[in-house]
Each structure stands twice: as C-alpha cells, then as structure tokens.
Amino acid sequence: MRIVHLANHCQLIGNGIVNMMVDLACSQADAGHDVVVATSGGRYEPLLAAHGVRHVVLEQSRDPWRTPAMVLGFNRLLRDVDPDVVHAHMMTGAIIARFGTWRRRYALVTTVHNEFQKSASLMRYGDRVVAVTQAVEKAMIGRGIRADRICTVLNGTVGTPRRAQASTADPLRLSRPSITTVAGMYERKGIQDLLRAFASLRATHPDATLYLVGDGPDRADMEALAAELGLEGWAHFAGFDTNPVRWLAETDVFVLASHKEPGGLVLSEAREAGCAIVATDVDGNPEMLDRGEAGWLVPARAPDALAAAIGSLLGDAALRADYAARARRNLDKFTVQRVANDYMAVYATALDVFRQTHGRRPRTALRSS
C-alpha cells in the first residue's frame, strides 16, 4: 500500500502527535509498505530514512494566504506518490487532503489527537475518523461525527523506533524520594496543581524532590509559582529531554496532573518503565491506566487530592511497589505494532467507504484487478 502521512512538522520536541505519526510510519515501512511523511521538516528525518520512509517537504499552515502554495505542493505530492491512503494528523492536512484536489483517488483517514481544540471538528472530513481513546470518540460523536464513521485506536509506545533516536546521556541519579512529571509547560497540563500539591507535601515529606521535565510557553509562570511557594531547590525545572525514559526509570512516583489529556503517550511510557503512577481522572487517562488498575486516579484541579495520593505512595514502599507492578501488566495493547495493525484495518475500511461514497474503485483496487 502507498501511504502518505500529513503533519505540520516532524520536530523532535516531545509533541505526542508527531511521535505517534513517526512510530506508525516507521512500523508501516518496516512491514513493506511504501510510506511518505510530508511535513515542514524537523529532526526526525534521519530516523524516518533509516526505516525506509521518505520525507517530503510540504509546508502546512493555518495562514489563509499560504493556501495556494499548500494546494500546489500537495498536488505535486499526489502526482509523485499516487497514494492509496492519505492519513492527516493535524487540521491543516485534513483540509488540504479533502479539498485540495479535484478528483480524489485516495481514501482519507484523519486522527483526532487533541479533541479539546475547536479545530478538531474539522477532522470529520476523513472517510474514516480515528480517535486515540474511547473518551475522544465519545466526545467527537457529541460534536456531530456519525458513530459509524469513527473508531478508536488506542495510543501505545512499547517498542517505539524512536528509542534509537533518544539521548545517550548518562543515567540519572535523582534525589530520593523523587516525584517526576514529563509534560509540556502548558496550563492544561496541571503543573500549577502539582506545584501546590508538592508544597503541601513538604510538611510530611521534607526530603522529597520534584522534577519537571518539559518545556513550553507557560514555563516562566510555573517557575514564578514555584518560587512563590518556596520550592526553590526542591522543584527542578529540567527542560525538554529527548530521552524522558531515563527520568521515568529513576523516579519513585510519576505524576500526570493534566486538566485535558486525550490519550497521553507518556502514560504508556511510564507503565513500560514500571512507575508508580498518579494521574488525573480526565479524558483518556482512565483508559491508559486500565480504569485505575494500573495507576492512581485523582480529580483534576484538586491539589489536595493529588498531594494525598502522592504522599500515600511515598510513605508506603509496599504500596508503591504494588502500583509499579500493576503498571507493567497488560502492556501488549500498548505496543507500536498493535497500533500499526489496527491502523491497517482502518485503512481497509476507509478504502471501502471511499468506493461506496464515490461510486468508483480507489487506486488499490485498480492496481490489484
């Protein structure tokens, strides 16, 4: 099968959409498919090339004045590749793939990664729409997508080819007991709640240290809050790390305090690392943690509840070991290979929908007949 993946970029900056796309494209190419990734570029091109994935520069932007150039570039790509399936991971790609050519000869698949964004509604234009968790699927049905046009493919990172691209820095030696989050510095990630929870924990666990791994536009505000709470020297803003797994491998408790989290890849990574996990009971987090069997779920925007859960794990080594063991169970569903297999089934359905909708066979059927 000839497959084109569309995204705005393929930068190595911790973007979950890009990371998932790279994993999928590499796995599909490894299975023998002809795979092209079309983005504005980034540091993942060498990894893609190592797996036989061709990267094509295609600028994708929300700026209306760029639309003619995007459409021209996309049509050049179609003439070059003549794909069976175009898989759009971001809104701009979905729009140009649906409306950027006169006589479409490919099935269009769209994945809703960030349902909380208003623009997620535009992903409805796929012949088949994919949600990264059942929570996202339910939300998108509530926004008007027909139930027979959408399905769920759960995110997973076990066996990711990106591990080969990871930093080769020396193993970490974190202060104990340690609490770690790996998250972008955005308000929706609940970093402010975690900082307040950690401040209250200092009364009962004065030796605990908090590590915040990630970067983003709200970092300065979070650093200011940490200083206001008197956490200097105890809350460490580590910035972005290309190899977050080394933090997960060394921490005592991993925390994801998000207000919105459709299907965070980091929970799959934390489970594989065997972390005792505390996460907010929002969106896709319960599914990523087996409805609480593989991690401790707490309400969002509730620093006191967050502090209580973290404190219970820090104060009870047996309980912490139990949660770490529970995290490692049932990991087969989080393999990149399972994700790739599920998407190939989605592609087959999308090709069938294309044929029924347009009254003609897509390119795959023409080639095989």
Topology summary:
Layout lengths: L1 E5 L9 H15 L3 E6 L5 H6 L3 E4 L9 H15 L3 E4 L2 H9 L7 E6 L15 E4 L2 H9 L7 E3 L25 E5 L8 H11 L7 E5 L5 H10 L6 E5 L5 H4 L4 E4 L8 H8 L3 E5 L4 H4 L7 E3 L4 H13 L1 H11 L8 H23 L4 H6 L1
Parallel strand pairs: 1-2, 1-4, 2-3, 4-5, 5-6, 6-7, 8-9, 8-11, 9-10, 11-12, 12-13
Helix pairs in contact: 1-13, 6-11
Keywords: Transferase
Pfam families: Glyco_transf_4 (PF13439), Glycos_transf_1 (PF00534)
InterPro entries: Glyco_trans_1 (IPR001296), Glyco_trans_4-like_N (IPR028098)
Descriptive notes:
This protein folds into two domains: 2-156 and 335-368, Glycogen Phosphorylase B (Rossmann fold); 165-327, Rossmann fold. Helices cover 39% and strands 16% of the residues. It is built from 14 helices and 13 strands. It has helices at 16-30, 45-50, 67-81, 91-99, 134-142, 191-201, 219-228, 245-248, 265-272, 285-288, 303-315, 317-327, 336-358, 363-368, and strands at residues 2-6, 34-39, 54-57, 85-88, 107-112, 128-131, 150-152, 178-182, 209-213, 235-239, 253-256, 276-280, 296-298. It is elongated and about 65 Å long. By secondary structure, it is an alpha/beta fold. The strands form two sheets. Strands 3-2-1-4-5-6-7 form a seven-stranded parallel sheet, sandwiched between helices.
